[in-house]
Amino acid sequence: MATVRLSPLQQTSLVILRTLIGWHFLYEGYTKLLHPAWSQAGAPLPPWSSAAFLKAATGPLAPMFHWMGNASWIGSLDVAVAVALTAVGVSLTLGLFTQLGCGGALALVATFYLAAV
Fold first, then answer.
1. Which end of the chain is more exposed for a tag (fewer CB within 10 A), N or C?
2. Segments in 1-117 forming alpha helices (H)
3. Roughly how many angstroms between the first and final C-alpha of the chain, as a whole number?
4. CA dist., res. 50 & res. 8, Å (int)
5. Is the confidence at residue 36, as pLDDT, over 70?
6. Whose CA is closest to 22, among 102, 116, 82?
7. pLDDT tens, position by position, 49-107
8. CA contacts within 13 A on the Cβ side of 16
9. Quick check: 48 and 32 in contact, CB under 8 A?
10. Entry pTM
11. Is 66 within 8 Å of 115 (Cβ atoms)?
12. How far is CA 4 from the centre of its chain?
């Protein structure tokens, strides 16, 4: 297998891109974990839930997502999604376990995509 050599500019660009993508995942997961959430006006908001997203799924796996959106354990699924987003974000932002973080990001984005197409 041939070794690919990247220029310093390419290396720096990839680190910046990985960090920004990681920050996005980290921010999305962290804000979903905040309970209670607060509006800009200072009023409490209901906790985040993926139920509406899952019930509105139109992709090839829509029946499965609809079932998940109506499941009694939707709260546990919401916490699992938020924790997964946060873990992927920490991994990519800090550059720790990067391959595992990339795999997790790919799995999350593919799942969200399959629900939305």
1. N
2. 8-33, 51-55, 62-69, 74-94, 98-116
3. 37
4. 41
5. no
6. 102
7. 899 999 999 988 999 999 999 999 998 999 999 999 999 999 999 999 999 999 999 99
8. 6
9. yes
10. 0.85
11. no
12. 30
